[in-house]
Amino acid sequence: MADPSSYRPKPGQIPDSPGVYRFRDEHRRVIYVGKAKSLRQRLANYFQDLAGLHPRTRTMVTTAASVEWTVVSTEVEALQLEYSWIKEFDPRFNVKYRDDKSYPYLAVTMNEQYPRVQVMRGHKKKGVRYFGPYAHAWAIRDTVDLLLRVFPVRTCSAGVFKNATRTGRPCLLGYIGKCSAPCVDRISAEEHVELAEEFSDFMAGRTGTYIRRLEKQMMDAAEEMEYERAARLRDDIEALKKAMEKNAVVLADATDADLIAVAEDELEAAVQIFHVRGGRVRGQRGWVTDKVEAVTTADLVEHALQQLYGEETGDSVPKEVLVPALPAPVEPVQEWLTGRRGSNVSLRIPQRGDKKALMETVARNAQQSLVLHKTKRASDLTTRSRALEEIADALDLDSAPLRIECYDISHLQGDDVVASMVVFEDGLARKSEYRRFQIKGFEGQDDVRSMHEVITRRFRRYLAEKEKTGEWVDDSAEPRNGSDAAADGLDNSTNGLDSSLNGLGGPLSGLKDDDGRPKRFAYPPQLVVVDGGQPQVAAARRALDDLGIDDIAVCGLAKRLEEVWLPGDDDPVVLPRTSEGLYLLQRVRDEAHRFAITYQRSKRAKRFRASPLDDVPGLGEARKQALLKHFGSLKKLRSATIDEICEVPGIGRKTAETIAAALAQAAPAAPAVNTATGEIIEEEEPGTPPGSPEEPVAAGAQSERRGQER
């Protein structure tokens, strides 16, 4: 169960405009789709106190791991996009937790003598045309109410229809012109069926031809001076246009097109793409990029086209690509797109109509994406700065610890004891600086001795590098070479240590190898964090003291109560639960634990995968797999005769004799073997490779595993 506050966007990041939002779980699956007149107000309702939420809503927001939204022009656009995405993604919470009912559909009962337009739920019936699903039944009724002026199809129930037929009087809708009243034979059954088919065609998206036909009829009526009929047709057209206020979601005539919009400033640009297939928005994507050089909007469009269609062919490239600006010259790009598709592709700027309106919606989303990116970037920098300041205040440091190193010990019941070192600079993980250690000084399990060994080895290397290049950092001395930034080994930019350490010349230039790469242990941290309490902290401090290093702060983060321990203190430092500093320390500690567990598991798996077949000369991986696949396990292979081993393709008699001899000398293998692949079956879940981008292990998951893997 996730904490909704961990992914809650700030109110200023959410636009106060209509739109559609999607909640996703940790695997990026869409679990809920909703629409709102005001995205800001609606999303705020989900992030209130969990105790005040409906149980279904509480389950949804704690299952979700992220939320995203798409801005549209009107509520009707949001409605159309909402049901399109519900149909496309089939979100689990939309379907299962909506008052125990399915989504409503607009249905036309073409299987009846007098077709009826109505709201339907549940299983679909043969002979009924369905449109939807919609999120709310009232939205269907509003749409139908607008369309009945032009398509006066029957909407009454069977009882009302029979009563009107018996009395010879139509219902109220028949009197006000919103029903053709087939119940009293104003039109025949055949004419009413034709009217219902026209209604269905309009709802299916074939709107352009019908509206153009009405417009022509209106003009003809005006020319013939039938002004009342022309006015009625004009009102019909306006009603239809109002009913189909969904230009940003559905294009007439089942258009296939990609629409690309760009929002930019002097430093960055946001690109947003809507993929329209069959007249409906089927996908959306976008990204934000730095403008590292002077580029125009047309240049950005050309780059976007290359990224979108560089590896696409055939129907993946649409017939139309609508852009805000054309690359210059446009012909080569258009020819390239045509070659990718295999037929002509139209690359143009929409000038009018529904495509231009949809382009405006895409542009609004691009602008919103750029604003959100800048807001997050500024917020992240501010948050990280506040976290570092809180840590400095809590630990009584002279300055904010811009470089933090964290160490963790991992083992499985005393075997394969390893340690990890992770590095955070300016509050961000710097994975290229991560290091891992095997404990070599002793056998068995002793976290305190292991921590002392690791800290000693790491900072002995630091002192060795420092000795080669001369004294380069002395916090208590005057800056060397007259440069404060160089002497401190850091600057005030958002890159933290990067700009000073990567500069040419100066007192830090000697910290690089001949190929220009930084030396592995050359940079000292301002703070060392160890995973553990007083014993681990004391061991780390003792290791530094033994090496004569007294200008690096040490602390430990104990798991039980998330207490921060300092060397020599009997009482821990307790940071508030809402502290950004505590959150940063937890992230650092959890990342160190994840990296250590990953390395420890990889060593254990490598040891378990050892096989007696590895010692057979000339037996490669392919033939080993063939043997294991043929016999199913090492146990069965060990009991096989030489003639049976020879039955395996690629295994000759001499090789079979060698295999039999090797297996006879080897002790029986304890682990079970997968009969399909020949790999050892482990009870523990295998870890990810070292250096993988896996997120830090959650606090709850960590505590459950530590009993086995410490």
TrEMBL record:
Domain UVR: 208-243
Coiled-coil ranges from the UniProt annotation: 211-247
Keywords in alphabetical order: Coiled coil, Cytoplasm, DNA damage, DNA excision, DNA repair, Excision nuclease, SOS response
Record's keyword annotation contains DNA damage: yes
Compartments in which it is found: Cytoplasm
Disordered, as annotated region: 470-517, 667-710
Ranges for domain GIY-YIG: 16-95
Positions of the UvrC family homology region profile domain: 259-544
Residue ranges with Low complexity bias: 490-502, 667-679
InterPro entries noted in UniProt: GIY-YIG_endonuc (IPR000305), GIY-YIG_endonuc_sf (IPR035901), GIY-YIG_UvrC_Cho (IPR047296), Hlx-hairpin-Hlx_DNA-bd_motif (IPR003583), RuvA_2-like (IPR010994), UVR_dom (IPR001943), UVR_dom_sf (IPR036876), UvrABC_protein_C (IPR050066)
Subunit structure: Interacts with UvrB in an incision complex.
Family (UniProt): Belongs to the UvrC family.
Stored HAMAP family: UvrC (MF_00203)
Function: The UvrABC repair system catalyzes the recognition and processing of DNA lesions. UvrC both incises the 5' and 3' sides of the lesion. The N-terminal half is responsible for the 3' incision and the C-terminal half is responsible for the 5' incision.
Protein name per UniProt: UvrABC system protein C
Native organism: Streptomyces graminofaciens
